[in-house]
């Protein structure tokens, strides 16, 4: 019982004392001795919460297996484990019905959870400051490039071709009205071409934007890139997968000036595209140019601790010409989900999740690469996603795999016609060996 509850031996002693018995066995006196179980119970090995839910779903199904598609979808939205406590907490009416905190008199509970979220994110990213969140990962980058231009007093932005194409489109939309020049850094074997970066850097460049891992799942040479970018006097703006930070160096370790992320992997369901969570962090020196809100801890006139909106540089709060942004509403409920997720998973749990992702992704990639008609498109190191080149168009492969109960991945041809034979496959900690082996067997018949 102690393995599944938070009661300490002292808690148990006090409860027994309160109800007037000496031990737990005293509560069983009404049960005849011959009906009591003697010795150890013959129970199966312990399972995780996710495994238990899966087992119960199979038991409840009339054919012994739940009707579902096994997902290998990625490209920015992932099928990760979500502890039951996450949805339980965010569904409480105190949080679920509360509006986003515009006013300084917003409840202390909401402010406290945002403050804790900011603290978690700063520790996870190894960055100095985090705001209360923005809409999603793409809009976070849109805000980041404006912030970098304001701080460097430069105009141009360089964006890696290995960034998610949708993110690049969002940044171009953010910049359209201001006429911000955005140039693309070419790709070399699936990663940013460092020699091309050298040629593009100049004293006009405000920021270099990339993702790590990148859109193809590959790891960029972030330390080398950071040195080159800073030597040119520009900002390094990096978008990361928050789960990867359980095993990869955080943005602060390689000197990122602004680091953002899509927070969906931190306890948010895939949900047909939202709502999601834009994580936004930066170095402390830049805090007054950050978009959105920042919650701080203080004391009141009686010396009692409390939480306040320390900075709120939105046009709803200050003069429009002084605002850092006018469309950076924070996702308080989604941030709370990430808060609960990180609290439940913990440092070691996040490290284990990341390790499972990388081990399972490499297992699947190795097995698939041995199939006729399939090969890995790139040779570089990857985290939990990899790109498969197939003889058939990726779209046809995906449709055929759906008939075999698999969501095989993302057709990269929808982003670039030259990528029509490329399939982006994501493997999270949820995928079992049996699922992956069955996936390989099914792929062998269609690829």
Care to give the gist of this entry?
The chain has helices at residues 9-19, 49-60, 84-90, 93-96, 108-125, 137-152, 165-176, 194-200, 222-231, 332-368, 394-402, 433-446, and strands spanning 70-71, 129-130, 156-160, 182-185, 187-188, 191-192, 205-212, 235-240, 258-262, 278-282, 293-299, 305-312, 374-376, 385-390, 406-407, 410-411, 422-426.
Describe the fold and architecture.
The structure is a single chain. Helix content is 35%, strand content 17%. The protein has 447 residues and is α/β, with parallel strands linked by helices. It folds into 2 domains: 70-81 and 347-446, Alpha-Beta Complex (Aspartate Aminotransferase, domain 1); 84-341, Type I PLP-dependent aspartate aminotransferase-like (Major domain) (Aspartate Aminotransferase, domain 2, 3-Layer(aba) Sandwich), CATH 3.40.640.10. The longest helix has 37 residues, at 332-368. It is flat and about 85 Å long.
Topology:
Layout: H1 9-19, H2 49-60, E1 70-71, H3 84-90, H4 93-96, H5 108-125, E2 129-130, H6 137-152, E3 156-160, H7 165-176, E4 182-185, E5 187-188, E6 191-192, H8 194-200, E7 205-212, H9 222-231, E8 235-240, E9 258-262, E10 278-282, E11 293-299, E12 305-312, H10 332-368, E13 374-376, E14 385-390, H11 394-402, E15 406-407, E16 410-411, E17 422-426, H12 433-446
Parallel strand pairs: 1-15, 3-4, 3-7, 7-8, 8-9
Antiparallel strand pairs: 2-10, 5-6, 9-10, 11-12, 13-14, 14-17, 16-17
């Amino acid at each position: 019982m102690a393995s599944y509850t938070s009661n300490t031996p002292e808690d148990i002693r006090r409860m027994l004392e309160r109800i007037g018995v000496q031990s737990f066995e005293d509560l069983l006196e009404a049960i005849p001795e011959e009906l009591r179980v003697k010795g150890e119970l013959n129970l199966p090995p312990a399972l995780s919460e996710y495994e238990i839910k899966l087992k119960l779903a199979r038991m409840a199904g009339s054919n012994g297996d739940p009707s579902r598609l096994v997902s290998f979808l990625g490209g920015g939205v992932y099928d990760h484990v979500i502890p039951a406590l996450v949805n339980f907490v965010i569904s409480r009416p105190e949080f679920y019905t509360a509006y986003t905190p515009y006013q300084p008199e917003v409840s202390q509970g909401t402010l406290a959870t945002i403050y804790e979220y900011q603290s978690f994110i700063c520790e996870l990213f190894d960055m100095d400051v985090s705001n209360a969140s923005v809409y999603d990962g793409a809009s976070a980058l849109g805000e980041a490039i404006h912030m970098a231009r304001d701080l460097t007093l430069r105009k141009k932005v360089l964006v890696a071709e290995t960034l998610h194409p949708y993110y690049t489109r969002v940044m171009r939309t953010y910049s359209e009205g201001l006429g911000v020049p955005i140039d693309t850094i070419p790709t070399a074997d699936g990663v940013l071409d460092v020699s091309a970066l050298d040629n593009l850097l100049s004293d006009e460049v405000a920021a270099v934007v990339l993702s790590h891992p990148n859109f193809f799942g590959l790891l960029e040479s972030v330390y080398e890139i950071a040195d080159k970018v800073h030597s040119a006097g520009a900002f390094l703006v990096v978008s990361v997968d928050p789960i990867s930070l359980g095993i990869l160096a955080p943005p602060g370790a390689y000197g990122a000036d602004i680091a953002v992320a899509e927070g969906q992997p931190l306890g948010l369901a895939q949900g047909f595209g939202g709502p999601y969570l834009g994580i936004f962090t930066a170095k402390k020196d830049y805090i007054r140019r950050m978009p959105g809100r920042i919650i701080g801890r203080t004391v009141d006139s009686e010396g009692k601790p409390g939480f306040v909106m320390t900075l709120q540089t939105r046009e709803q709060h200050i003069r429009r010409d002084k605002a850092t942004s006018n469309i950076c509403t924070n996702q308080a409920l989604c941030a709370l989900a990430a808060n609960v997720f990180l609290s439940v998973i913990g440092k070691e749990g996040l490290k284990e999740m990341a390790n499972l992702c990388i081990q399972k992704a490499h297992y699947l990639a190795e097995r698939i690469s041995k199939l006729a008609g399939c090969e890995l498109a790139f040779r570089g190191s990857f985290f939990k996603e990899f790109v498969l080149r197939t003889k058939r168009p990726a779209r046809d492969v995906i449709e055929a795999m759906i008939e075999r109960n698999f969501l095989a991945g993302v057709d990269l041809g929808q982003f670039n016609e030259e990528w029509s034979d490329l399939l982006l496959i994501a493997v999270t900690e949820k995928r079992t060996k049996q699922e992956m082996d069955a996936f390989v067997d099914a792929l062998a018949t269609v690829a």
